[in-house]
Amino acid sequence: MSVLFETSLGDIVIDLEVELCPKSSENFLKLCKVYYYNLNAFFNVSKDFLAQTGDPTATGMGGESIWSYLASQRGDESIPRYFVPEIVPTLKHTRRGTVSMAVAPSVGGDKGGCGSQFYITLADNIEYLDGKHVVFGHVVEGLESLDKVNDVFTDQEGRPFKDVRIRHVVILDDPFPDPVGLTKPPSSPTQPPDSSTRIAEDEDALATLPEEEEERERRKKAAAASALTLEMVGDLPFANVRPPENVLFVCKLNPVTRDEDLELIFSRFGTIMSCQVIRDKRTGDSLQYAFIEFDKREEAEQAYFKMQNVLVDDRRIWVDFSQSVARLNTSWSNDPKLGTRRKGGVGFAGRDDLEESRRYRGSQKEHGRGDYRMVFEAPDTGSSHHPSSRHRDRSSEPRRRSRSRSPVPRHGRERRRY
Questions:
Q1: Does residue 96 sit within a domain?
Q2: What is the CATH number of the domain that holds 155?
Q3: List of residues 6+ apart from 327 with CB closer than 8 A
Q4: Within a 10 A sphere around the Cβ of 33, how many other Cβ atoms?
Q5: Order of strands, sheet of 318-321, starting from the edge strand that comes earlier in the sequence
Q6: So what's the pLDDT on residue 370?
Q7: Which compartments is it annotated to reside in (predicted)?
Q8: What is the enclosing helix (H) or strand (E) of 14?
Q9: Domain limits at 142?
Q10: Residue 172 and residue 275: Cα distance in Å, rounded?
């Protein structure tokens, strides 16, 4: 009549006193059979004294007998929570590894009552407990595991800082017939029954990472915290959004470089869905950077490697992958036209639920929108500062070659440098 406890600190085998304490032994074995003790924590560990467990709530106030447990499963509240303890005077706490039922003194009359909680002694000759608790078993294997339990660090209430749990229970011998209504669960529970905030039993609190990996993890956590903050203030649609992989950011442009110029230059790498030089919202002047969206990520990668530091309109441009997600916010707008989900494709930035595709130049021209807004709003058509009505009328000029060396006017503002 033995039970094997597989704990987070090693295995423990307990032999039961089934003849001297049949009620306590039957209660213990049947609770083991229904996986009642699985993933229970040792919630009270006193060095060189005892280690207590068997309470699913890990508070010292929970637990019940097997008969009360089965009755509660069928909705019967007539069965008492505890049973009368079987205190045998000849069974004493004389040696380490003695297993006893904890007795609740406030119930069950003068003798109190027993439920599911039990403890294992961690030292010899603890006469203080004799006659007060039910000794019903002894540890016959796994004393070294008890040594590990005895050495754990605890708080002022005796709760280990790092959880010590009963991972699994195996009944080696059971002489008692099952009570009416007892059904063995198909599998062991996978979640602890209590809501512990301690260090997990399978977590190494002293583990250290290499300096580079630790720095990488620190930056990853800091980025996640910053993203969550930006989501809360509304700058990001959601914290785990990532920049698109098919959009390039081009800066250090000449102020005279137009959308058409960049599209012509970059179109040799693949199909361009949108190309826009970002302009000042008020004046319409070029801010000397642009976003170019390709149909495929591979085309954007090829353009990134080939166009780095290339001379365009007497300026050596800088090309990088876009880190902006400003365009994604349109899917969270109250405007139903902007919030419509796209029906097909992989979606912008790898998400098919962010926004309706507004990339294809042909469909945009049909609706009179050919300027592919990405960051700033374009000025009204009638504004005197619109790019089409700036100081020079470019419609009558021949198409400027990308390597033009003509002087560049400042248009009343300093050029932005990157």
A1: yes
A2: 2.40.100.10
A3: 348, 355, 374, 375
A4: 19
A5: 272-279, 286-294, 247-251, 318-321
A6: 43
A7: Nucleus
A8: strand 10-16
A9: 2-171
A10: 73
Query: What is the structure's pLDDT at 404?
Result: 42
Residue with tokens 């039990």, as numbered in its chain: 118
Check residue 225 and give its pLDDT.
Answer: 85
Residues in the chain, total: 418
Q: What residues pair up with 162 in beta bridges, in sequence order?
A: 199
**Do 293 and 274 meet the contact criterion of CB atoms below 8 Å apart?**
yes
pLDDT at 395: 42
- The verdict on residue 187 lying in a domain is no
What are 349's two structure tokens?
């930035």
Q: Percentage helix, strand, coil, to 5, in the chain?
A: 25, 20, 55
Q: Point out the domain boundary residue: 171, 191, 220.
A: 171
Regions of the chain short of the pLDDT cut 70: 106-111, 234-239, 325-418
Answer yes or no: is 275 within a domain.
Answer: yes
Per DSSP (E only), the strands in 198-343 are: 247-251, 272-279, 286-294, 311-312, 315-316, 318-321
Query: Which conformational region is residue 386 in: left (phi greater than 0), alpha (psi within -120 to 50 degrees), or beta?
Result: beta
- Distance from the Cα of residue 38 to its chain's centroid: 25
Residues sharing a CB contact under 8 Å with residue 163, sequence separation 6 or more, in sequence order: 8, 41, 192, 196, 198, 199, 200, 201
Q: Which of 171, 205, 223 is the last residue of a domain?
A: 171
Alpha carbon distance 366, 371 (integer Å): 12
How far is Cα 149 from Cα 119, in angstroms, rounded to an integer?
A: 12
CA–chain centroid gap for 117, Å, is 33
Note the pLDDT of residue 106: 65
> Sheet holding 2-7: strands in order across?
44-46, 50-53, 113-121, 98-104, 134-141, 10-16, 2-7, 166-171
Domain-embedded: residue 215 = no
What residue type is 272 in one-letter code? Answer: I
In CATH, what number is assigned to the domain containing residue 391? 3.30.70.330
- Could you give the C-alpha distances from 19 to 14, 25, 130, 176, 236, in angstroms and in order? 15, 9, 19, 11, 69
Spatial neighbors of 388 by CB under 8 A, at least 6 apart, are 394, 395
3-state secondary structure of 407: coil
Let me know whether 135 and 264 are in one domain.
no
- The number of folded domains in the chain is 2
Q: 80-99 pLDDT, tens per residue?
A: 999 999 999 999 999 999 99
The reply to whether 24 and 116 lie within a common domain is: yes
pLDDT reported for residue 197: 84
Q: What CA–CA distance (Å, rounded) separates 271 from 51?
A: 70
